[in-house]
């Protein structure tokens, strides 16, 4: 359960909406089930009935600001990691800061419905968070299943970047602390495999890709009005046979297009219907850039220059990136 | 030479101001380099988008080499510095995907280095030929 209550968020939303300071609220709304919470825009106090805040509000609302701020002055609820995406979008001048009233919400880690399903089984009817436990009722068992919340956290919450908001207009709680995480562990594990094993690994993962483009559509860094992958002659616009290079190409280019701008928010992996660990590709790029050009966190401050938009005369040569890496390691 | 001997297809992106002129000089000097190398002239090495490289592979290239001016000598002052950062990240990422790291390369070749151009191409073609056909990045639909 989140320590911050739905009431506290609602109160803030009602206050600002009725005072006319904002004309829309960006928040989360219940879907068909308790766990398929979706981002939503609320433009009146009455509409706030459907507002939801809980363990399944993983969605990052920053990207929706681009569209909504063109029509409204928007109140947006941002978790600490979401604020990095907002900063990055501001760096790229994607919307006007004055159009946004950002309210920082503390986050205790969000639950991953896929992990929950794995533990509780299929046919989930309802989920209810009580303290550190999640009570799950399924179609196939009479007794509700009780699951420890900490065991079903999203990957990005296990490796939480920070509990401290990078930007906000007001905070609903005290400022959080930076947390240290071991987020490059999985990347290092892959790096220690042989090239053949790595190829097999990605072939296995990416051949499942159905090219729904959800990773691209949800990514707060992917904000081009026209995308290279919408081009029918790009050679990478639709689903390819499993053994061809197209899926790899799509995912390499997708990750490369956000290189230096990716805040590692993990939305790509969260929304993937095939559960491909897409964040590993972005994380590999971040790890490399940290090693080559110094540690950089996209979105930590507005206006910071990404490593790929900068250079020094003594940069590492492309051929030297493999030095010290054993070919057959 | 046997008729069916495997010949790799090499795509070389050459910057207009240095490496392309270097290739010209190699020709003028009658320096030999393999005809498997197909040169694509670009205004600056920085013009080469990672997609160009992957697409070359997808369409059947066995090796891709990117040639630009020496760092500091860019016609546009800093283009090749950006290339250097971009390609360092891309090559490392391709290696992460288990793609043979010898298939891609960046070389700095000036307009006066015709001999270096020929030597680089000879050596690169040999390396790629030893690796054999590019099976990991190809797309059968793109092949004749």
Structure in a nutshell:
With 329 residues, chain A is of the alpha/beta class. Chain A has helices at residues 6-19, 64-68, 80-91, 113-120, 155-158, 185-191, 195-206, 214-218, 246-257, 267-271, 279-293; strands at residues 24-29, 38-42, 74-78, 100-104, 124-130, 133-138, 145-148, 170-171. In chain A, the strands form two sheets. A five-stranded mixed β-sheet of chain A has the order 2-1-3-4-8. In chain A, strands 5-6-7 form a three-stranded antiparallel β-sheet, with helices on one face.
Task: Describe the 3D structure.
The complex is a heterodimer of chains A (329) and B (144). Helix content of chain A is 30%, strand content 12%. Chain A folds into three domains: 1-112 and 158-181, no CATH class; 114-149, no CATH class; 184-329, no CATH class. Chain A has helices at residues 6-19, 64-68, 80-91, 113-120, 155-158, 185-191, 195-206, 214-218, 246-257, 267-271, 279-293, and strands spanning 24-29, 38-42, 74-78, 100-104, 124-130, 133-138, 145-148, 170-171. Chain A has 329 residues and is of the alpha/beta class. Chain B starts with 9 loop residues before the first strand and ends in a 13-residue tail after the last helix. Chain B has four helices and four strands; from the N terminus they run βαβαβαβα. The relative contact order of chain B is 0.24. Chain B is globular and about 40 Å long. Chain B has a four-stranded parallel beta sheet with strand order 2-1-3-4, with helices on both faces. Chain B is an alpha/beta fold and 144 residues long. Chains A and B meet through helix 6, helix 7, helix 9 and helix 11 of A and helix 2 and helix 3 of B.
């Amino acid at each position: 359960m989140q320590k911050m209550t739905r009431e506290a968020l609602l109160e803030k939303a009602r206050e600002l909406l009725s005072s006319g300071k904002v004309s829309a609220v960006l928040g989360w709304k219940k879907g068909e089930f308790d766990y398929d919470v979706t981002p939503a825009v609320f433009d009146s106090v009455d509409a706030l009935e459907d507002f939801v805040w809980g363990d399944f509000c993983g969605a990052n609302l920053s990207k929706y600001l681009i569209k909504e701020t063109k029509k409204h002055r928007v109140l947006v609820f941002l978790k600490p990691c979401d604020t990095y995406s907002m900063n990055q979008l501001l760096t790229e001048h994607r919307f006007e800061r004055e159009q946004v009233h950002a309210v920082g919400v503390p986050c205790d880690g969000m639950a991953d419905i896929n992990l929950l399903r794995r533990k509780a089984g299929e046919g989930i009817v309802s989920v209810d968070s009580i303290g550190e436990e999640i009570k799950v009722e399924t179609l196939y068992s009479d007794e509700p299943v009780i699951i420890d919340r900490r065991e079903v956290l999203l990957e990005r919450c296990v490796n939480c970047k920070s509990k401290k908001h990078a930007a906000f207009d007001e905070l609903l709680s005290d400022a959080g602390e930076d947390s240290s995480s071991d987020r490059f562990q999985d990347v290092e594990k892959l790096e220690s495999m042989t090239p053949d094993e790595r190829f097999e690994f990605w072939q296995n993962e990416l051949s499942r890709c159905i090219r729904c483009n959800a990773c691209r559509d949800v990514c707060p860094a992917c904000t081009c009005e026209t995308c290279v992958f919408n081009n029918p002659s790009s050679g990478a616009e639709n689903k390819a046979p499993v053994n061809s290079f197209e899926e790899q190409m799509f995912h390499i280019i997708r990750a490369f297009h956000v290189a230096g701008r990716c805040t590692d928010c993990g939305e790509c992996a969260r929304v993937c219907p095939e559960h491909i660990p897409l964040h590993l590709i972005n994380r590999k790029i971040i790890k490399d850039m940290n090693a080559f050009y110094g540690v950089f966190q996209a979105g930590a401050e507005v206006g910071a220059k990404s490593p790929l938009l900068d250079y020094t005369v003594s940069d590492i040569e492309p051929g030297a990136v493999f030095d010290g890496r054993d070919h057959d390691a | 030479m046997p008729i069916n001997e495997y010949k790799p297809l090499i795509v070389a992106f050459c910057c207009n101001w240095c490496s392309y002129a270097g290739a010209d000089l190699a020709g003028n000097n009658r320096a030999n380099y393999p005809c498997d190398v197909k040169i694509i002239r670009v205004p600056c090495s920085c013009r080469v988008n990672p997609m160009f490289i992957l697409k070359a592979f997808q369409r059947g290239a066995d090796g891709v080499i990117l040639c630009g001016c020496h760092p500091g000598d860019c016609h546009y002052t800093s283009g090749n510095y950006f290339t250097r950062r971009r390609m360092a990240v891309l090559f490392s990422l391709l290696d992460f995907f288990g793609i043979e790291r010898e298939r891609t390369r960046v070389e700095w070749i000036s307009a006066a280095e015709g001999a270096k151009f020929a030597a680089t191409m000879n050596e690169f073609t040999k390396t790629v030929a030893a690796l054999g056909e590019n099976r990991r990045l190809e797309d059968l639909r793109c092949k004749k």
